[in-house]
Design goal:
Length: 224
């Protein structure tokens, strides 16, 4: 097991997390502004991962070298970050423009893992697809600066500045609990006059094997 995985195993988060500015503190939630970053992303059908909705975790972990030799063209190990982000509630993931090409290098390079890992779930014709993201360490400011994945399923994307309303909670992030948190957060935002601009995402700061009492999760709605 890689060192990065071990650091998150007991729930203590000592890896890089996304920098943000708290713009407002409401009743049980915060509104945060996040700066631009680079994300590694994989889209897949859970059926192809033996029914595992988090099956993309292994693919992305291999890219950064969390379990062994990094699967990128340098190869370069990439530090692990937190959290892992999953969109839920039947909504679509926030669209992220790819503003730069991914450039091939001659040697693989390990990339540090950041948290969160972001997973987006579509609906209707996209219902079977899941998109999971790792946000790369802040030293990578452009997609072409990060090592190119050797697994063609992994895509590097530049994520622009964004603003989210966030509620934090522990324990298991099952569908029922997440839906309740999202419903409560949306109601609080509407009460306070904040405009929600898209579906929520789920941020998970720990690997799937972390004991429930030690987990940190966040439901996040994009807002104006």
């Amino acid at each position: 097991m890689g060192l990065a995985m071990g650091k998150l195993m007991l729930g203590k988060i000592i890896v890089e997390t996304p920098k943000h500015e708290v713009l407002h503190t409401g009743d049980g939630y915060e509104i945060r502004k996040y700066p631009p970053c680079v994300a590694a992303e994989v889209t897949y059908d859970p059926k192809e991962m033996k029914g595992d909705r988090d099956g993309g975790f292994q693919v992305l972990a291999n890219y950064i070298g969390a379990f062994g030799k990094p699967q990128n063209t340098k190869p370069e190990a990439i530090a692990m970050t937190a959290p892992v982000i999953t969109s839920s509630g039947g909504g679509e993931a926030e669209p992220i423009a790819m503003t730069a090409p991914v450039i091939t290098s001659s040697e693989p390079e390990p990339v540090a893992m950041t948290v969160p890992v972001i997973t987006a779930e579509g609906r209707e014709e996209k219902a079977s697809k899941v998109t999971m993201q790792f946000l790369l360490p802040s030293k990578y400011t452009k997609a072409e600066e990060a090592p190119r994945p050797t697994d063609e399923r992994v895509v590097l994307r530049e994520v622009g500045e964004r603003k989210y309303a966030v509620v934090t909670f522990g324990g298991l992030a099952g569908d029922k609990v997440v839906a309740e948190k999202a419903e409560g957060l949306k109601a609080a935002l509407e009460k306070d006059g904040h405009a929600v601009t898209g579906p929520f995402v789920l941020s998970r700061y720990n690997p799937p094997w972390t004991l429930p009492p030690l987990r940190t999760n966040e439901v996040m709605f994009p807002v104006k």
